[in-house]
Automatic annotation (TrEMBL):
It comes from Neobacillus piezotolerans. Residues 96-307 form the ABC transmembrane type-1 domain. The chain crosses the membrane at residues 9-27, 100-120, 132-157, 188-207, 243-268, 288-314. It comes from the Bacteria. Belongs to the binding-protein-dependent transport system permease family. The keyword DNA damage does not apply. This is ABC transporter permease.
Length: 321
């Protein structure tokens, strides 16, 4: 498995190089630049803007710009944000903890609910409870996240006043105190519930259907014929085979943790990586936008690798050579 992992990691290098070319090209094809909106004769000297464009290398040939960017990038220098006027690494690192908290909480909610509802519906198919769970799943699949977010804010933040509607922490509380951590969790819970419960629908259906399908296979009939207890049949024989599809989702969820569901973060004005990416696109902040895109691409490849490795852990029949 170690050789397989190393081989996959080395195979990511040409893939990331190709992705970097595509990302850089698409960024340069966007109209305008980060200084386009700053040209105001009353506030900003146009000559200063031109000097900054020269300094940033915007007038260099595209191959030269790409080489300068990628050579600095591989050395850990992501450039300086044209919007925040600080290093891109500092901008991203400031938002990462919020997104990790949001994504981790959402995934925890997703897997707990999906496992509980999926296993129950799979063990008792076509009952009233199974139909109710199925109705919840179809409702979750049909509602867009931005609609669910707006309704959640209106009901739970404005009407019931159970959760705050925006931000990541109460700014009046001292940083690092116990009340500060409680405030962080209180602020993240509502967007995490929206994000997690919408993802629960597909996970629950996959687990339910796999449990029903596996319960009809020959190895289950053989186990029943041998007198194996029904609880052991479900927990060992059926459930272990049924969780394999969820492992695929877990690999891709690594990307979801960092990207932080751009729409959800925007609706709740939650200061994470997703909202930062959207802002960098709208303000043409090329260094931040390209660094985040490369980060998402790298995590996608890592997520695929993690999913493949977990396949072998869950199912010993799968061998990674």
């Amino acid at each position: 498995m170690l050789k397989y992992s190393l081989r996959r990691l080395l195979g990511m290098i040409p893939m990331l190089l190709l992705i970097s070319i595509v990302v850089f090209t698409l960024a340069k094809l966007m109209p305008g630049d980060s200084f386009s909106g700053e040209i105001d004769p009353n506030n900003t000297d146009p000559q200063y803007i031109e000097e900054m464009r020269q300094k940033m290398g915007y007038y260099d040939p595209l191959p030269v710009q790409y080489f300068n960017w990628i050579s600095d990038f591989v050395q850990g220098d992501f450039g300086k944000s044209t919007r925040f006027k600080i290093d891109v690494a500092d901008v991203i690192s400031e938002k990462v903890p919020n997104t990790l908290l949001l994504g981790g909480t959402a995934i925890l909610i997703t897997y707990i609910l999906a496992f509980l509802m999926g296993t129950y519906a799979g063990r008792k198919p076509y009952t009233l409870a199974d139909n109710l769970i199925g109705g919840f799943n179809y409702l979750g699949l049909s509602i867009p996240s931005f609609v669910a977010g707006v309704f959640a804010i209106y009901i739970f933040a404005f009407t019931l006043n159970w959760f705050p509607s925006n931000g990541s922490v109460d700014i009046t509380i001292a940083n690092g105190t116990f009340e500060w951590y409680l405030s962080k969790f209180h602020h993240v819970l509502l967007p995490a519930l929206v994000l997690g419960m919408l993802s629960t629908a597909s996970y629950t259906q996959f687990l339910r259907n796999d449990i029903i399908e596996n319960s009809r296979k020959d190895f289950v009939r053989t186990a029943r014929a041998k007198g194996t207890p029904e609880k052991r049949i479900y927990n060992v024989h059926i459930l272990r085979n049924s969780v394999i599809p969820l492992i695929t989702f877990l690999g891709f969820d690594i990307v979801a943790i960092i990207s932080g569901a751009i729409i959800t973060e925007t609706i709740f004005t939650y200061p994470g990586i997703g909202q930062l990416f959207l802002q960098s696109v709208s303000t043409r902040d090329y260094p931040v936008m390209m660094a985040l895109t490369m980060l998402f691409s790298f995590l996608t490849l890592v997520g695929n690798l993690v999913a493949d490795i977990l396949y072998g852990v869950v199912d010993p029949r799968i061998r990674l050579d």
